[in-house]
Design a protein that fits this description.
CATH superfamily of the largest domain: EIF_2_alpha
CATH architecture of the largest domain: 2-Layer Sandwich
Number of strands: 10
Number of helices: 21
Distance between the termini: 43 Å
Shape: elongated
Strand content: 5-15%
Number of domains: 4
Amino acid sequence: MFKVFLVEDEIVVREGIRKSIPWEQYGFMYAGDASDGELALPMIRKIEPDLIITDIKMPFMDGLSLIELVRKDLPNAKIVIISGYDDFSYAQQAIRMGVDQYLLKPIIKEKMVEILLEMYERLEEEQQQKKYIENFRREAQEYENFSRRNFFEQIITGGLSVSEISETAKEMGIDLNAPFYNLVLFSLNSTEYDGSMPEGYTKSLSDIQEKVTQLIVSNPDLLLFRCNITTYAILVKGMEENIKQLTQDCIENIKRCCATAGHDVDWYIACGTPVSRLSAIPACYEKVSRILSYRYLCPEEHIMSEELIRNFQKKNISKTDIERSEIEQENIRKFLSSGTISEINHFMDQLVKNADEKVVSIHLFCRYLSMTLYFTTVEYLDSIGCRADIFWSLELWPKANVSTVEDVRKYGRHVLGKAIEQRDLEHTKLQSDVLKQAIDFINNNFSDTSISLDMVAKEVNISPNYLSAIFSQEVGQTLTEYITFKRIEKAKHMLRQTDMRLNEIAFDIGYKDPRYFSFVFKKTSGCTPSEYRKGNKQ
């Protein structure tokens, strides 16, 4: 039901219009009226009517002045003007200002009903278009787009100047304007995932990922980017007085979503410190990624913070050598299962924190840690079925001259880097097979109205998160964009080669709503299906 507001200075005319029209019968709710523009304006701003019917000549504030102000506040509202024959020049001016229709006095009920039906049809069409745009935006999953991921990577590495960031954001339709910014990183993967293969499908992980991503993309203060296969970044935008609260609310909302998965999903969250410049985001990212990397050392915690890091370091120093050895091996295995090349430096910094004045011999400690790194890495690669021949070479064998903290840092970076390269190489082979299966399934089933990222992921037994990441990276389109592409390509063929009606084509390629099919076709092809068919016949 659409809201209508009437502005008319003659009480007899105003009452006559209000009482003579069965508004609800024509899809409208009579929301209020006023005797002039000055009284009407605050009421209109509060009610936000969909249709405004206003006289042109009124005391205090005439219809033209009212229309000019309303257009700024409610650009999508429909406006119908009422004018007498003597006011035609005013009516012409109002039409130039974008009014939708006009009524001549005296008001005839039948004419009013005719205009109401026309306005209802226009409002319905616009409302439908808004739904289509929102649905199309949601289906496209723009936050997964590889170009968007690349853009974020350039921001956090300082690869773009502030002017280049603003220009690129504008081209991509991303609103980055805000006085203050902060970053929240969160990581999601199934508890059983050990990095041995592309992460398998589990409903718990799929449900959590969907909840969290929808929560974020529906909030205009939050921008979602993917960092890597298991980790997302959220750019929080706000004012100086509310940026910390917005950040905390974001963390709490993710926490609530993830907590519903129980022990089936491993999830970790960390946040940075608010900054007032886009150019300061790389430093913010460096800090928050360092904090998040402690998830490998504190796997039982979910919210990573600097306070948690300090407490962990104090607690770890007090442990016996045996306890510390077991913890370090487990932490290294955990890191190897899902860590990335970019996180190695942070991880090694954390791992050598034990090398302080309480260590009896720095030399023995470094020797011990290098051996632990080596044998734990070889054991891990063997456990995931990855050939570790390269690790038997003298190049990677822990040497006796690893005797300082900096030596062990350098050695650890080298060993872990080689191991992650081997792991990812094995993943790439498996990903290629999984991706081929996914594309084959889509090619054979894109006309199924229920096909989705979750359905395809379930079919090839891979987590939606993992599939979404590798699909956009390797194919250059999101999975949903690829499905849309296949549907529209088939539609084009049918428009050229058959005389099928548009609704028949829509149903045949997987669209339940023929009008939505036409909307998507025009959005992706630049013309309507009918125009495409006529153009090809010509």
